[in-house]
Design goal:
The protein is α/β, with parallel strands linked by helices. 25% of the residues lie in helices and 24% in strands.
């Protein structure tokens, strides 16, 4: 049985954050397996089935992070909020680490975070209380209908929440110009690119 000290981690790696507000920052990534959303455009579908992953001790994760020069950690998935993340974030903060969460907001909130990126998805709506926790709203744009979807959530986040539109990678060439024009007309939004893919890093 998995308790808060053990998490079904799919992968861990040291890289640069490629998307959103924290783009370009060196960070250690913890990708937790399991997802209840299942987006068709997901580029890590292998993270969906947590039952295929052995539980990883948070203390082992901490030991791998401590020698690194960067003091940022990105917790992503899958959908991390499927699990109790209080122990993980407590231990990371005790080590003086800044923690960024990437979530669809579909499950109850746990953990203490320095930055919350809410990537709302059509498949499973984020919980209202999670919407209000977002420091950053990131909407993946696959077609023009996603602009109205983005505006729907822009009215629900806090006034200080940053707003990002990100082209889905497989249709980036088609959607890039449309996003640029949309932001020119609606400058409360900022474009987010999957810069790690352009840099060919994890």
């Amino acid at each position: 049985m998995i308790d808060e000290r053990y998490l079904p981690v799919m992968e861990e790696f040291y890289s640069l954050q490629g998307e959103g507000f924290n783009t370009g920052k060196a960070a250690y990534f913890i990708r937790i397996g399991g997802c209840d959303v299942g987006c068709h455009f997901c580029d890590v579908k292998e993270a969906w089935n947590a039952s295929l992953l052995a539980p990883v001790d948070v203390e082992d994760i901490i030991r791998r992070i401590k020698p690194l020069p960067a003091r940022n950690v990105v917790v992503t998935g899958g959908e991390p909020l499927l699990y109790d993340l209080n122990y993980l974030t407590k231990r990371l903060h005790e080590e003086g680490i800044t923690i960024f969460l990437e979530t669809s907001g579909s499950s109850p909130f746990s953990g203490s975070w320095d930055w919350v990126c809410l990537s709302a998805k059509r498949n499973t709506e984020p919980l209202k209380e999670n919407i209000l926790r977002a420091d950053e709203l990131k909407i993946i744009v696959c077609d023009e209908s996603d602009f109205s979807f983005a505006e729907h959530y822009a009215t629900q986040v806090r006034n200080d929440c940053l707003l990002y539109l990100q082209p889905e990678w497989s249709c980036r060439n088609e959607m890039m110009k449309k996003i640029i024009e949309y932001i020119k007309q609606n400058p409360k939004w900022t474009i987010s690119l999957q810069s790690h893919k352009y840099m060919q890093i994890p």
